[in-house]
Structures are given as structure tokens and as C-alpha cells.
Specification:
- By secondary structure, this protein is mainly β.
- It has a single domain, classed as Jelly Rolls (Sandwich), CATH 2.60.120.10.
- The protein contains two helices and twelve strands; from the N terminus they run ββββββββββββαα.
- The chain has helices at residues 151-154, 159-164, and strands spanning 8-11, 14-17, 20-23, 38-45, 49-55, 63-69, 72-78, 89-94, 98-102, 106-112, 116-123, 132-134.
- The strands form three sheets. The chain has a five-stranded antiparallel sheet with strand order 1-9-6-11-4, with no helix packed on it.
Length: 169
Amino acid sequence: MNLNEEPRIIPIAVHPDDRGSFAVPWVKDKLVLKMPEQMNVSHSKQGVVRGMHWQASSSAIAKYVYCTNGKIFDQVVDLRKDWPTFGKVYSFELDQHKALYVPCHFAHGFQCLSETATVVYLQSGPYDPKQERAINAKGYLWPTEIKEQSDKDREAPSWLEGIADEDLF
């Protein structure tokens, strides 16, 4: 794990034709997340917010996020407590033309901006429910009203409450 990494956009070439389009959003030898251990797929309706999630330091994971269909507003928060950018929020809009690399030690969440969106993300390690942490997304600025969240996300503590007892990175 490289603590010097920052979230960043990876441009994706999309090739449209009469049938639809074709893209290669991830190639092991060319991109930042070389050895994914898990792939997740979420389908969301407009206004849904998923996140803000991370895993505790002993199980920290990086993510490579790609919106295969629709558009999302993605946010990540720096959780490196001794870093000058601790608490900084990075915001990105993603669609088929952009992927996002989220390094370890960042909370991650997104909102569906289009009628529906499909998001695929590769992770550097497996999801561990015992190590999952969350802060409430309502403490962040989203482009539209939050129409839906999971019960777990809605009940997550605020930023200050959520990190107060955490052994952050």
C-alpha cells in the first residue's frame, strides 16, 4: 500500500457504432489496480446514495470504480489522519468515459444522477463485514436530494462521530 496515492480519474476510450458501443475499462498491466481480489456490481435508481464506506486499517482496500451505464457523482474522503489532506473530499462525475481509482485509506460513496446507473468496481482485497466502517453521507454535498439509502448507511454516524473511536491510518 502506497500512502502517497491520491484518487484519480482514468480516461476510458469508448467506441460507438450502430450496434451500441465498446470499451476496455481495465487492463491488468496498464492500470493502477493490478491484482483485484473481488468485483462488485451495483444497480441504482436516480437519487440513490451508496456509502460512505471503507474498511478498517488491517483490511484496507483500494477500488477501481467504473460506471458502465448511466452517470454517477462519486465522492471520496481522505482518512489518513497524519496527512495534510486528512478530511479532504474529492468529487468526480463518472460515466462510460471515466473510471476512478480510489486508494486505500479513503471512504467512498456515490449518487446515481441518471434514471439508472450500473457501477462495477474492482477491489484490491475482499469485503470483510467485520472490518467495514461507514460515515453518514448526509454530511456531504450531493448534486441532488438523497432519495434513498440503505438502513445501514442512513444510521451510520456523522463524520466526527464515525472517526472518533477509529484507529485511522
